């Protein structure tokens, strides 16, 4: 498979000028295939099969044709037929069949054929592992971060590449519904792409009147694009065509190039070709970084890692442009990477079928170290990615709303635009101060822990006592605070049932100086309750009597907190009330036996939050396991 055309199938104008004599139906079908007229080639190969002529050959070619057309549902059918019909078939068809199977979410079967291919051929260089069951399980179990919104601008044709700038949405579309109808693109028999503009993704009346004003749109493919921060320059993809001249490579095909245009009197004009282009290979999908000093793009130029790679150029003074620089082998694979995009914080997003994904093209996010070097890429998961092609990721400067494109099942056309909103990242922040002087405490160590004590993250307070730690939603946590000269403290926090727009929880903390000798033996153990009961049991009274002895007789300045819980059975409302009754019963027991109420800083019920094990509503647990959650805990605040 020629990956150059495979990855640029949404853009590349591949018109062969060579003509052939039609000496038979198979040759006619092959001519159409070799000229990249895949839509017509599919009809011709189907005709061969219907007439029972060269059926094995036609099945292989139909599999390839539908792969180029990004239709794995049909490719699977014909690859399977070809493999079953021909002994000693080229092993590459095992690989092609496996990839098509991934495109229809038949991952188990895909792994079987991918393994067969690897056993026969040593040319399997793909980075897809043979066993990705853990990946699929993890993707499916992750809590959703992205939520899809309604889009009305899609048509039966290809619509993709949505890009928003100053309230205007730009996108590429083959909906050639204007007064003058252009030629159709032989690859998929759709009109060529133009750039359109709209102010709303819910506008269902976008037509030829919405075409970008100026000289950017041509008779061939145009789009997608990116715009500089000042709004004066646009970089965009177009087939090798300028000043009414079409460039061609040695095969007579027209590749993709990147051009720029200037905004003059509200029209985009003065179209110029960028200097790193060539008629011999494709450059496309331009994307600017946050300060417009780098332009990222996709290219299948010689010297890459394979297929198409992500490159960038440095834009200097007077718009001087450097030579292209490959983005490196952490991003690029021996397969295909494309559609780069950088958000307002210069995080790079891109599409790839070479990294571990759900099927065809998936969208990935890069992770960087403290020196801004890319150290990993992460699959964005569901619902951004699917088993089909997912590409053209864009997110606004708020880092919460944006768009991507996909040819997934359930869409309106061959490619569709999808809008999303993203949950903001959630942090716990606060200041740590001395409880008496109220002065900030620098260099305190704050450790985020699970309810079972597993350490998740660590922060150090700055000179203002400020700290910040990232959290996941719908969880319970503890914050353990350590500082020399102060008594260790644990604070409980919950991220359950939070407003989805919330990005910060504030937890200010006051530390007590070690005014007296640290207690070595003052470890208070939880007390437990019967199911649906709040009365103090005999084993609980024994521990409470021990606490009374410490607080009344041994350490008369000790201050504590009381936190009570239930198991997960019952409604949230009922469990919260029951836990409050348990906290009150515990408080009353201590006070009735001589502990001053002023030394119990807080007594509170937390319902079924902060389970000590996995016994939530989705898990079947024994009575002993539920018992561990029906408890009251004691936190020593001051000795």
Automatic annotation (TrEMBL):
OmpA-like domain residues: 517-639
Keywords attached to this entry: Cell outer membrane, Membrane, Signal
GO cellular component terms, A-Z: cell outer membrane
UniProt superkingdom: Bacteria
PANTHER family in alphabetical order: LIPOPROTEIN YIAD-RELATED, STATOR ELEMENT OF FLAGELLAR MOTOR COMPLEX
Stored CDD domains: OmpA_C-like
Protein name: OmpA family protein
Coiled-coil residue spans: none
UniProt-annotated location(s): Cell outer membrane
Residues spanning the signal sequence: 1-21
